[in-house]
Amino acid sequence: MAIDTSGVKLEDRPFEQVKEQAIDQLIMNYSHGILSAEAFERRLDVATEAKSHQELVDVVADLTLQPDSQYQQQRERSFSPQYQAGEDKQNENIISVLSSNQHSGQWLVPAEIRVINVLGSVELDFSEAIFQHQHIVIRVNNWVGSLNILVPEEVNVVSNMFNIIGSAENRAPSMGGRQAPKIVIEGYSVLGSLEVSLKRTVKEKFVAFANQFRGLFGTDK
């Protein structure tokens, strides 16, 4: 059986921990060509949407290949925020007046970002960003503009916005651990909008990693 059910009763174990084990098992077996792409995605749907421990056990019950050290190292590299030492970048001002401004790719994140947005559009994409600080503050002055913030799952986000006939929506699950970067958004929005969301869905993240890991073994050909 793929998930060890001996020892502590299955239903007494942390659910997210068991789910992680099941997903790792699926990726490991798919990457070695044991599961087809169709079977992998079908089972991944079951694992990510599971509501009970038993569903997770059942979805990997016939898989015997266990994640090894190479898998764990690759997973750590892929799912951990990128920190980089170097010249310390403390602050940055983003001013958008009747225009659009976008930060994306591997950009260096300062400790503080001040956004002044008047009738404009600003997008900050942190999915591939390089962090030097664990605590980042985004100070927002938003007048009839839109601010879109895209984050990966391992970055925590807190929104403390004051809205005047505006809207603010934080759809990031903040699944990062203690060492994960924490982004605090504060300020005000007048007749404007703020949206925080994931760059990729959880399923898209795991499929992309599985295909990346599969490529290491040449089984994607």
Automatic annotation (TrEMBL):
<dbReference type="InterPro" id="IPR024425">
    <property type="entry name" value="LiaF-like_C"/>
</dbReference>
<dbReference type="Pfam" id="PF09922">
    <property type="entry name" value="LiaF-like_C"/>
</dbReference>
<protein>
    <recommendedName>
        <fullName>Cell wall-active antibiotics response LiaF-like C-terminal domain-containing protein</fullName>
    </recommendedName>
</protein>
<feature type="domain" description="DUF1707">
    <location>
        <begin position="19"/>
        <end position="63"/>
    </location>
</feature>
<dbReference type="Pfam" id="PF08044">
    <property type="entry name" value="DUF1707"/>
</dbReference>
<feature type="domain" description="Cell wall-active antibiotics response LiaF-like C-terminal">
    <location>
        <begin position="111"/>
        <end position="169"/>
    </location>
</feature>
<dbReference type="InterPro" id="IPR012551">
    <property type="entry name" value="DUF1707_SHOCT-like"/>
</dbReference>
